[in-house]
Amino acid sequence: MTPMLNNLTPGRRGARSMKRERRVLIALLVALFQPLGHQSAPPGSGRAQATPLSLTAHGSSNHQAPPPATVTELRAAIDQIIQQPSFATTRWGILIESLDQNCAWYSRDADQLFVPASNLKLYTTAAALVHLGPDYRFRTSVYAAASPDKTGVLKGDVILYGRGDPNLSSRASGGGTLTPLDRLAEQLYQAGVREIRGDVIGDESYFSGPPLGVGWEWDDLQWYYGAEISALSVDDNFIALSLLPNETPGPPAKVLTVPETTFVTVINKAVTTQAGTYREIGMHRGLENNVIEVWGQIPMDGPGLNRSVAVHQPALYAATLFSESLARRGIKITGRVKQADAKYRQQAPLDFSKLAELAFVESIPLAEELRILNKISQNLHAELLLRTVGAVVAGEGTASQGIKVINNLLQSAHARRQGIALQDGSGLSRQNLVTPATTVDLLRYVYRHAQRDVFLASLPVAGLDGTLESRMAGTPAQGNVRAKTGTTRYTYALSGYVTTAGGERWVFSMMVNNHTGPLSQAINAVNEICTLLARFGG
């Protein structure tokens, strides 16, 4: 069973982080409808504006201590930060290089292997951008063996075929939660379909291989950031569950799910208690079913509990939601809802030449997807991209083929990659091992690539957005540092770009492993180092 959620902490991700991620995603989706690279702060907001397509240094620092005047002083200042007693048993790997002078200004164990956490998303998104291009779109199709007859009857199965779209959801299309599926249902209705005399099949065979990453931990699998991977993924493969107190003590707490669907079963044993009592809630979803158990107590005057619970068998989930969309549109289904994976298709392969595409939806461009993925660090999206790269470039939609493409990209970039081990696309696996040097080499390569501006626009900006929204605000690093965060238990990383006060463009990678103290210690230390870099005028 999952531990009781006294402070509302699922696995290793806290409620504050999850709420911030939702706020960031909403802001991102609004920004997606602006021209890429033009993010404006609201009038009168007092917030600095980001400059996505270039690296710009901010003005003078508010810090009382003078900035380092020489590289020697800078190195000494960094050493002082990472040699604090709180880091006595912590491993630090740091490499800071100049993009302008092609030299290293600081190096500490830069060629040693570290767990990168979500810094691995830099590798996945770089490979996707280079090989697929910024305008790449994912297509989700509805196939049938024939068109409907004059009475509106479609005889045979309807196949909802996914090709790895990370944004088959309202969060990328606006409107209700099931908007993309409703659009597909509407297209079928407009094509004359009134009844389907067959099954509705969710087909995920575009990808093959296991639905979970190598080395993923059990603690992660029931939450949204450990969601199963499928070529047919809807709403990030999770159910949004809200637990609310009742108006009076005694009755069960109220449970709401979004979307409302028959696909999940909630067993609610949580009760409402007197005002002023403590809140203690437990939640669990089995690894092989979609039964969500909730237990514990919530005070009648207490705040609600919001959780994003991953679903099992996401292709079947998508097909279920699609069948519900069809029913709402008035299309009758006489068959069942099923799923088909790559193993099934080995025995019953699809012959697209004999199928009619009755409906389809296309995703937002890849450039816009990267802004979602990197800024909020969306694990499932990274895994879908990894397998898409494998399918498009190597002809097989597997993690292993996607990783081969990444390794080939690193070779083309002349990256120092001896000994590295890549296991997934998101960094959730603790079995990933890379070096700060490899990461810096990759970032330098992308910075000099034709798609540099798109890549820079996807990275969180210190003090402004994404996972760096609340970091380094009010310092010269704000609006200047563009970098990808990475966090797992005992691990923290930050890699990206900064422009110094002297106008020099630097690339850096900082990786912190085996830190068993508070995560805030590592984050604050990395913040201090980034601020030092931004203030440096030597």
Computed Rg? 24 Å
Strand content: 15-25%
Summarize the amount of helix as a percent range. 25-40%
Largest sheet strand order: 2-1-19-18-17
Q: Give the biggest sheet.
A: 5 strands, antiparallel
Q: Outline, from the CA principal axes? A: globular
Assigned CATH class of the largest domain: Alpha Beta
Q: What is the terminal-to-terminal distance?
A: 56 Å
- Tell me which CATH architecture of the largest domain applies here: 3-Layer(aba) Sandwich
CATH topology name of the largest domain: Beta-lactamase
Structural features:
disordered N terminus; 3 domains; five-stranded antiparallel sheet; 538 residues; five-stranded mixed sheet; 19 strands; 13 helices; Beta-lactamase
Question: Can you walk me through this structure?
Answer:
It contains 13 helices and 19 strands. The chain is α/β, with parallel strands linked by helices and 538 residues long. Strand 18 (491-499) and strand 19 (505-513) form a beta hairpin. 49% of the residues are buried. The longest helix is centred in the N-terminal third of the chain and has 17 residues, at 15-31. The chain has three domains: 51-134 and 367-535, DD-peptidase/beta-lactamase superfamily (Beta-lactamase); 139-212 and 314-365, 3-Layer(bba) Sandwich (D-tyrosyl-trna(Tyr) Deacylase, Chain: A); 218-310, no CATH class. The strands form five sheets. A five-stranded antiparallel beta sheet has the order 2-1-19-18-17, sandwiched between helices. It has a five-stranded mixed beta sheet with strand order 15-7-5-3-16. Strands 4-6-14 form a three-stranded parallel beta sheet, with helices on one face. Mean pLDDT is 89; it is low at 1-62.
